[in-house]
Amino acid sequence: MSLVTCLGFPRIGLKRELKRALESHWRDDGTHSTLLDTARDLRNRHWHLLHDAGADVVPCNDFSLYDQVLDTAVLFDAIPARYRPVFADSPLDGYFAMARGHKRGGHDLHALEMTKWFDTNYHYLVPELEAGQRFRLRGDKPLAEWREATALGLHARPVLLGPVSFLLLSKMVDGSNRLGLLDALLPAYVELLGQLAAAGVDWVQLDEPCLVLDLDGDALAAYRHAYATLNSARHPKILLATYFGALGDNLALVHALPVDGLHVDLVRAPEQLDAVLDGLPADRVLSAGVVDGRNIWRSRPAQVEPLLRKACQRLGAERLWLAPSCSLLHVPIDLDAETALEPSHRAAMAFARQKIEELRVYADALAGQAEALATLATQQSRLDQRASAPGVLNPDVRRRVRELTPQSGLRRSNSAQRRLAQAQVLALPLLPTTTIGSFPQTETLRKTRAAWRAGRIDDDAYDAVLAKEIEHVVRFQEDIGLDVLVHGEPERNDMVEYFGEQLDGYLFTRLGWVQSYGSRCVKPPIIYGDVARPAAMTVRWSRHAQSLTDKPMKGMLTGPVTMLQWSFVRDDLPRETVCRQIALALRDEVHDLEAAGIGVIQIDEPALREGLPLRRADWSGYLDWAVACFRITVGGVRDTTQIHTHMCYSEFNDIIEAVAAMDADVISIETSRSRMELLDAFTRFRYPNGIGPGVYDIHSPRVPSGGEMLELLRKALEVLRPEQLWVNPDCGLKTRAWPEVEAALRAMVQCARQLREAALPA
Q1: Number of domains composing the chain
Q2: 41 located within any domain
Q3: 607 and 388 Cβ atoms separated by less than 8 Å
Q4: I need a surface site. Which of 7, 239, 314, 538 has the fewest CB within 10 A?
Q5: What is the 3-state secondary structure (H, E, C) of 195-246?
Q6: SS3 of 552-566
């Protein structure tokens, strides 16, 4: 019978137990041992869950206290020199210093850069390497966690990020060749694989997700050299895991590598199965990723069964393993906890546990078990009925999408004319200061929202708390001298969930948490039907905030691409069609904000780069509709209305022309962790409009000095014209504490004033 297995599992816990343990540890409320005990308990719980759901083999070493790429860097001692003194005092403190920064005990350290894990909403820490880098095996995490799992009586497979992908995902601080370090890195991998083999590990999983990217000759040669080297020494059997797309022109290379098994993503790229089977060596196992590891819908047996039967017929059951398409890190843990969801919706969904149960049914069906075959037939029937379920089809929404024209995405005038009109109305100084939107969400505020949701306080009492918090935020901003204010978003739980709760076509979970980075978790909404806006969503509180001040107040919206990317999206319509539906709903909100007297409107698109296809040949199609959706959202607004957008960690060289085509009046971007390196794209491409490069990292509790911010602003002015430059943090302040925010923003405003005075003529 075919084995059921899994590439990785969520680590945060059903009720975010790891998040709470981490944040308690960071507050010095808990000892190292308390955090590590929680981590061990979660691993054991998740392994048992996988086994009970039907997995024959469970993954180990996929668990991380913060990030799996950071774990790999530490495992192989790729620790930048500045962190080593902290590691010497405490390896755990050193680990978190790399992740979050560190400012105590005489140390003042920035965190490593953070960026998106391929085209997901998960963020990884970017290892820093340099020419002459030395590697060595540090600790025994993979082996220790394998022993932990086997002590529970489970068949476990250690998971490692493969050596070539590790280097390709790293950053060379001196600009040298990453792959030039391969020969220095491989002995550490050889040593680790030897230890695993000596301990009795039968299989190890080496993740090489970069194999689905466009690779040059050097990268292809690196793969050949790396796996020949690993194969030359003692090692467990190797499962080479690829995911997030098709192998394409890298398939011949993969078939030639000396490995014992291959995992391919047959959800993103089912069309690759024939080519994979045609070239698969006769002694190699195929791990077929046939249920979606990135979305919450049940698989369609009418699509999956033919793939599996074809593979089984060609390979035999023993050489065919059944698995999710990728690690289940990207989906919530257990649908059984969502007791409030309507049964008709639950029947169409599968979280991590249910995906393993699905695979068990497929394996039993391949073995000819009648009960499993009947289960799959019932599942397909229920999914077929979903198209006619209440709330799925909205004729008015479909009509509006059909009636869209190129003119729907046009502003009334070009950017130069708009700039003159906005200068007259807004009267902003040179180097205007602002923030990205959110202000700290205190424990009191979160408890008040929870009490309101639970019905323990009424709407009037809740509104009074929100109004008081908004006034506090407005007065604070006026006091420190910010130029364009925000209302602080105290009413919002999450930048996507808040809007989804007010739109038709969305569903919500109670415990559908997914890790974004570290202890940061999100609860993605579920788009199940056509999206429409039944009523205004933000106008009330934006209008109230503007009434408290004479300074410009930004209206704050999440853009259509981000609303799409950070939701679990229906799988029965093209994503671009769903995005246009969202854009039309947001367009209505933009025009209502404008009519309410809000003259600055920020439409955040942090996920625009994230959605970029992994293969360059597919970029233009995506960017065409993604940019069109942003422009639909803002189409037709007055010249005097200043449109802002915000983008998170992105390689802007990839998309700078598309960013310009969005035609926003001001863009703010995260650049502080890279020390303004991301502005290099704006050197090559003369971006015409305003830019606010973040001057401090809000993802770290570390408060930068005014001198640091001044240095970053001066770097920005080497690339940007003074009249282009805005001054702001690099993201929203929701997760920070008020003392950090006050100190940092006061310093930021003072830096802007200092530069402003220096730039003005005497």
Answers
A1: 1
A2: no
A3: no
A4: 314
A5: HHHHHCCCEEEEECHHHHCCCCHHHHHHHHHHHHHHHCCCCCEEEEECCCCC
A6: CEEEEEECHHHHHHC
Q: Which domain holds residue 669?
A: 412-759
pLDDT band for 676, please (50, 70, 90 cuts).
low
DSSP codes, 421-458: HHHHHH-PPSS-B---SB----HHHHHHHHHHHTTSS-
* Cα–Cα distance for residue pair 314/275, rounded to 1 Å: 12
Amino acid at 111: A
Q: What residue has token string 């863009």?
A: 667
CATH of residue 463's domain is: 3.20.20.210
pLDDT in tens, 23-65: 999 998 667 889 999 999 999 999 999 999 999 999 999 999 9
In a domain, 112, yes or no: no
What are residue 263's DSSP bridge partners? 241, 287
Whether 699 is catalytic: yes
DSSP letters for 673-703: TTTTGGGHHHHHS---SEEEEBSS-TTSSPP
Q: Which of 25, 263, 644, 699 is catalytic?
A: 699
SS3 category, 539:
helix
The model's confidence at residue 673, banded by pLDDT at 50, 70 and 90, is: low
Answer yes or no: is pLDDT of 317 > 50: yes
Look at residues 573, 615, 564, 578 and name the one whose alpha carbon lies nearest to residue 272: 615
Closest CA to 19 of 50, 42, 1, 47: 42
User: Is 427 part of a structural domain of the chain?
Assistant: yes
Q: Is residue 449 part of a domain?
A: yes
